[in-house]
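Before relying on records like the one below, remember that each one covers exactly one chain. Contacts with other chains, cofactors or solvent are not represented anywhere in the record.
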Amino acid sequence: MTTPVWDFVRRYAGADAARLHMPGHKGVPLLGCEPLDITEVQGAGELYGDSALLTESRQNAAALFGSGATLYSTEGSSLCVRAMAYLALTLRPNGTPPVILAARNVHRSFVSALALCGGEAVWLWPETRRSLCACEIPPAALEKALDALPAPPAAVYVTSPDYLGGLADIPGLSAACHARGVPLLADNAHGAALRFLDPCLHPLALGADLCCDSAHKTLPVLTGGAYLHLSARLPAAFFSAAEGAMALFASTSPSWLTLASLDRCNALLADTWPRELRRTAKALEKLRQRLARAGWTLRRGGDPLRLTLAGDGAVIAARLREGGVEPEYADRDFCVLMASPGNPQSHLDRVADALGENDLPPRRPVPLCMNPPERVCSVREAVFAPRETVPLEKALGRVCAGIPAACPPAVPVCVPGERLDRDALALLRALGHRSVEVLTER
C-alpha cells in the first residue's frame, strides 16, 4: 500500500532545503525527530483542504477500515467527537430537536461539543452502574428510551469499547436506531485495532454510522493521531460537510509527524500488523487464564486486547509497578492494562510474575450511588455563564458549571447545568476532587 505522506516528509527531510518557514527548529535535531517535522510547505497541502497526498492516504485508510470515507485528526478523538456531534446536530431532519440520546459514560469532549454546538443530551443510564467508566445499555432499553421521546433525537451516542474494555451491542443498538431513522454515533477511541481482529469487532463494521478511533491508543501511531469514519450508508450531505466540521474545531497547524505516522500505519495494516494483533490477542487470553488460576478476578467478554482486573485498583497497580509494569489505568475498583504487538511475550510474563498469587482480601466493586440529577439549565448556558470555584462541602444544591473529569478516564461525574446532590458530591470526593466549578449565584 502506498505511503504518500511518509514518502513526502522523508524526501523533504533529505533535500537539505534552507527552511525559511515554520517551525522554528528549522529541522535541527534537538530531539531527533525535527528533520521530519514540517509544515504546509509547497507540495504538502492542508489537512482540511486541497492535498493530493492526504487524499490518497485517507482513501487508503478508508479501504482498510471499510468506511465510506475516513478523515485524519492530529488532535485525537476529541476533535472527531466534536465533529460527529456537529454533523448530527446540523444535518438532523427538519423538525428534529437538537438532542442526542447518549449513554452517560461519555468522554468530556462530548460535553464540550454540546456546549459549542448548542445541543442537549438526554442521558441513558444503566440499571446498575458499577463504574464511572461503564454504562451498559441493552438494545431493548434503547428502544424504550427512543420510543419515550416526544420526537426522534438527532442521534444516539455510545462509547464502545469503554475504558474498562466493555463492548456495546452495536448490532442491536444500530438496529434499534435504524428502524427509527436515527444515526448511531460510536466513540471507538480505544478500539481502532478491533477492525483487524477475527472476528472483526469494529463499530463501523457492526452498524455504527459515524465512528471515531484514536489510532494512537491501539495502533503504531504517534500520540494525537485519530480517524473519523463515515459509513457508506450515510446521506451524501454528511460526506460534503465532514471536512468542514473537522476544520471548524481543529488547529490550522497539524502535526505532520503525526500525519506521517497515520500514513505509515496504513502500510503496516495492509501487511503484517493484523496478524500480529491477532497473535497478541491470543497471548493476552492465555495471560487471563494464567491469572484466573492464580486467583485474580477479571472482567471477561470485552476488548480482546485489554486486560481488566477487578479489585482495589490502586493496590494492584502498585504491585505491578514494583514488578516493572506500568498499567493504563487504576481506580478504586479496577486496574486496566492494554496490549499491542509492541509488547513482547516477556512483557506479559512480567505481568504474571509481578502479580503472583492473589493474596488480597476479597473485594467486590461498589455500585455507584448516583441517580439521574436534576437539570437546571442547558449545557451551553452553564458553560458560558459566570462561575466560581467552591469547596465540595459548600457545593450542595449548587449548579455545576465545569466538567469535572480527571484524565484518565475523562468521564464527567456531573455535567454543566445539573444540580449537585449528595451522591454526586460523594463521588467527586471519592475520586479525589476537593472543589468544583458552579454557577455564580445571583
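The CA atoms of residues 273 and 306 lie 17 Å apart.
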